[in-house]
């Protein structure tokens, strides 16, 4: 999870350096939450941000890949933070992924001790730009499940840093989701992994109902995105998140990184429509984008 710090840098959108403008970003890491500072406050966080013009504030810096990035702090031209993140992602693809295609293809085939997906690399976050939370299978548990490192970080980023955007990012070939889909239902397990991924059991049930006739691989791919949307709804079970979202002070986003093809999908939870459903909250999204 990533949250942009509020005062250390002026609040800005998601540019390649720091968001100085007024957006905050929080990002949940293998569950990745990103929240960018809004135009109302000068904060920086790693969750995707809101809208309103940003001030381009400092000079262009270069990341390790040699691509130039504009300080998120400086966008006086109303550049949306997600446009900056898109730019950074495409720079990563061109200057890193395609240049080291053999390495990334090997990662796609097997998981090594280290995580295969690093948000800072693919979205170009710099130190101080985002507050990140990472966990197995990119999950946000509901409030009724009690305290966890994930919701503690969420509480800090939303209530203390006052991030204005949360970005939950999942990815392809997720071993945590594979464990979830292959789990036997209604069987007590002593596995920490299985007990954790059970937080997304509803996503698994929806997947089985929708594509249960398809291959295991296709079910997992469907469930990877289903679990992200389930986490977006779980965020609304926290009163302090739901309250800020209702007041328009916080936006909630989903993201999906396909590292087999190096593409990134982004969407935003439509809070009003999602919460006005007669049968109860359900995820309805808007502002879909596909970066390739």
Give the topology:
Elements: E1 2-3, E2 26-28, E3 34-35, E4 61-62, E5 68-69, H1 81-97, H2 101-109, H3 119-123, E6 131-133, H4 149-160, E7 165-171, H5 175-182, H6 192-197, H7 201-211, H8 216-235, H9 239-246, E8 251-258, E9 263-269, H10 271-275, E10 285-291
Parallel strand pairs: 1-3, 2-6, 2-7, 7-8
Antiparallel strand pairs: 4-5, 8-9, 9-10
Helix pairs in contact: 5-8, 7-8
Explain what the structure shows.
The chain is built from ten helices and ten strands. The chain has 292 residues and is α/β, with parallel strands linked by helices. Helix 5 crosses helix 8 and helix 7 packs across helix 8. The two termini are 23 Å apart. A hairpin with a 4-residue loop joins strand 8 (251-258) and strand 9. The chain has helices at residues 81-97, 101-109, 119-123, 149-160, 175-182, 192-197, 201-211, 216-235, 239-246, 271-275; strands spanning 2-3, 26-28, 34-35, 61-62, 68-69, 131-133, 165-171, 251-258, 263-269, 285-291. Residues 1-23 and 30-79 have low confidence and may be disordered. The chain has a six-stranded mixed β-sheet with strand order 6-2-7-8-9-10, with helices on both faces.
């Amino acid at each position: 999870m990533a949250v942009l710090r509020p005062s250390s840098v002026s609040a800005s959108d998601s540019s390649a350096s720091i968001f100085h403008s007024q957006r905050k970003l929080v990002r949940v890491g293998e569950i990745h939450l990103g929240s960018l500072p809004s135009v109302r406050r000068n904060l920086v966080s790693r969750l995707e941000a809101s809208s309103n013009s940003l001030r381009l504030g400092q000079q262009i810096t270069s990341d390790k890949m040699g691509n130039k990035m504009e300080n998120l702090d400086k966008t006086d031209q109303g550049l949306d933070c997600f446009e900056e993140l898109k730019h950074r992602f495409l720079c990563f693809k061109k200057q890193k992924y395609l240049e080291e295609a053999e390495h990334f293809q090997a990662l796609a085939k097997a998981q090594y001790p280290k995580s295969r997906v690093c948000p800072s690399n693919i979205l170009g976050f710099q130190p101080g730009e985002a507050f990140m939370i990472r966990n197995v299978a990119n999950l946000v548990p509901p409030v009724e499940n009690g305290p966890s490192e994930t919701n503690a970080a969420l509480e800090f980023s939303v209530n203390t840093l006052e991030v204005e955007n949360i970005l939950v990012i999942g990815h392809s070939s997720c071993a945590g989701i594979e464990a979830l889909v292959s789990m036997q239902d209604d069987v007590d397990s002593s596995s920490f992994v299985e007990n954790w991924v059970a937080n997304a059991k509803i996503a698994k049930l929806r997947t089985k109902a929708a594509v249960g006739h398809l291959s295991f691989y296709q079910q997992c791919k469907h469930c990877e995105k289903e679990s992200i949307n389930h986490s977006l709804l779980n965020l609304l079970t926290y009163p302090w998140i739901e309250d800020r979202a209702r007041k328009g002070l916080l936006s909630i986003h989903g993201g999906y990184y396909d590292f087999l093809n190096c593409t990134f999908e982004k969407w935003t939870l439509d809070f009003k429509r999602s919460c006005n459903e007669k049968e109860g909250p359900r995820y309805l999204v808007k502002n879909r984008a596909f970066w390739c």
